[in-house]
Amino acid sequence: MRKLTYLLVASGGGHLKELYEALPEKFDFDNSVLLTYRTKLISTNSHDVRFIINPHKSLFKYLLCFVQTLFYFFRYRPNIIISTGAGIAVPSIILAKLFKIKIIYIETAANIFTPSKTGQFAYRYADLFVIQYSTLKEHYPNSVIGRLI
C-alpha cells in the first residue's frame, strides 16, 4: 500500500490527452498513478500507469471495472481524483464519494453545447467541476470555466 495524493483517471485517446493538458507544467507525477485502459498509444515510461478494463456500455464490465478500481483505491489511498472521463471514470467517482476523497472533473472539450453523459453524472459529485466553454454553463451552473488548450 502506497499513500498517493493523486489518482488520475481517463479513458484512452482524447480524454487522456485532455487530462495531461489540464495538469500544471510542474505536476507531481511521482505522487500520482494513472488508471486507464490498455491501448497501443499509452506509454508507461513517464510515470505509474495501471490498467483496468474499459467498461464501455456493459454492466458486467462496469462491475469488473468497479472491483479493479476499488483494488487501486485500497492500494494507493489517494487524496484527490482527477478525471476527464469517460465511462471509466464512473467507478472512481462513486468510490471517491464513498471514501470522502476530493473529485476534480474536467468536462471534455469535444462537447461545446451539450453535456456528456459522464459529465452529467460527475457534476453531481465533483468537488470541482471544470468546463471549457461558457456555453455549458447553463447545464453546469456551479462549474468553473477553464481552457485546456
Question: Which secondary structure elements does this structure contain, and how are they paired or packed?
Answer:
Layout: E1 6-10, H1 14-22, E2 32-36, E3 49-51, H2 59-76, E4 80-85, H3 89-98, E5 102-106, H4 117-123, E6 128-131, E7 144-145
Helix pairs in contact: 2-3
Quick overview of this protein structure:
The protein has about 150 residues and is of the alpha/beta class. It has helices at about 15-20, 60-75, 90-100, 115-125; strands at about 5-10, 30-35, 50, 80-85, 100-105, 130, 145.
Can you describe this structure?
Helix 2 packs across helix 3. With 149 residues, this protein is an alpha/beta fold. The chain contains 4 helices and 7 strands; from the N terminus they run E-H-E-E-H-E-H-E-H-E-E. The termini are far apart.
Primary descriptors:
globular, 4 helices, 149 residues, Rossmann fold, single chain, alpha/beta, 7-stranded parallel β-sheet
What percent of residues are in strands?
15-25%
What class, by secondary structure content? alpha/beta
Number of domains: 1
Helical fraction equals: 25-40%
The whole-angstrom Rg is 14 Å
Shape, principal axes of CA atoms: globular
Number of helices: 4
Instruction: Give the overall average pLDDT.
Output: 91
**What's the story with the biggest beta sheet?**
7 strands, parallel
Following the backbone from N to C, one meets helices and strands in this order, namely EHEEHEHEHEE
The count of strands amounts to: 7
Trace the largest sheet across and list its strands. Answer: 3-2-1-4-5-6-7
CATH architecture, by name, is 3-Layer(aba) Sandwich
Distance between the termini: 35 Å
